[in-house]
Write a structure and sequence with these properties.
With 224 residues, the chain is of the alpha/beta class. The protein is built from ten helices and eight strands. The longest helix has 16 residues.
């Protein structure tokens, strides 16, 4: 597989989700995204306004995370967070499912949680990605969570927060692709550090990549 640097950049949510991220670190991520023209900049909700303003005049989206990183906040809290983030300028929302309810077999609760956030997101014409945190799931649960994401009305299913025991794996993306079919979108995130790893995820079925190593990967793409 071979993409141009510009093509690969549009797969990337350039990510700065570290809890210790300072305003300077956020501004650096904005500048890097503008230089390479990534798909989005993904940051914690506190920084949405700053990133939205910093990306003015570009087609780069502002992406944020909801119920992050555990997914165990109430649905009402997730909906409030989502509405506030969109008001602050978020174009894309990456929410974490209620992992405990999924593992407990309460699929209705999982779908209701997703649907409430999907409704709040789509009401404003924005995009919802749903993080299922594959590191904590069996293969059966990965497939079931992916199908519930579709049922809940989201736009993407996403592998990982990057804050659990492991991140995106090619095998998981393949399981997710088989579960959701050929057209539903998948985001692979967490632990993607090289050009080959990026290509492997895309070839397995990922439509978007969540990466903090965007600059390193895109510079590697320019050398191929």
């Amino acid at each position: 597989m071979k993409l141009t640097q510009a093509q690969l950049a549009k797969y990337m949510d350039h990510t700065m989700l570290k809890p210790e991220a300072t305003a300077e670190m956020i501004d650096k991520a904005i500048a890097e995204a503008r230089k390479y023209n990534t798909a989005s900049v993904c940051i914690n909700p506190y920084w949405v306004k700053r990133v939205h303003e910093g990306l003015a005049g570009t087609d780069i989206n502002t992406c944020t995370v909801i119920g992050f990183p555990l997914g165990a906040t109430s649905t009402e809290s997730k909906v409030f967070e989502t509405k506030q983030a969109i008001e602050d300028g978020a174009d894309e929302v990456d929410m974490v499912i209620n992992i405990g309810e999924l593992k407990g077999g309460n699929d209705d609760a999982v779908v209701a949680d997703i649907k409430a956030v999907a409704d709040a997101t789509h009401e404003k014409g924005k995009i919802l990605k749903v993080i299922i945190e594959n590191a904590l799931l069996t293969d059966e649960e990965k497939a079931r969570a992916s199908k519930l994401t579709v049922k809940g009305g989201a736009d993407f299913v996403k592998t990982s927060t990057g804050f659990s025991t492991s991140g995106a794996k090619v095998e998981d993306v393949k399981i997710m692709r088989e579960a959701v079919g050929p057209d539903f979108k998948i985001k692979a995130a967490g632990g993607i550090h090289s050009l080959q790893e990026a290509y492997d995820m895309i070839e397995a079925g990922a439509n978007r990549l969540g990466v903090s190593a965007s600059v390193q990967i895109l510079e590697e793409a320019a050398q191929q």
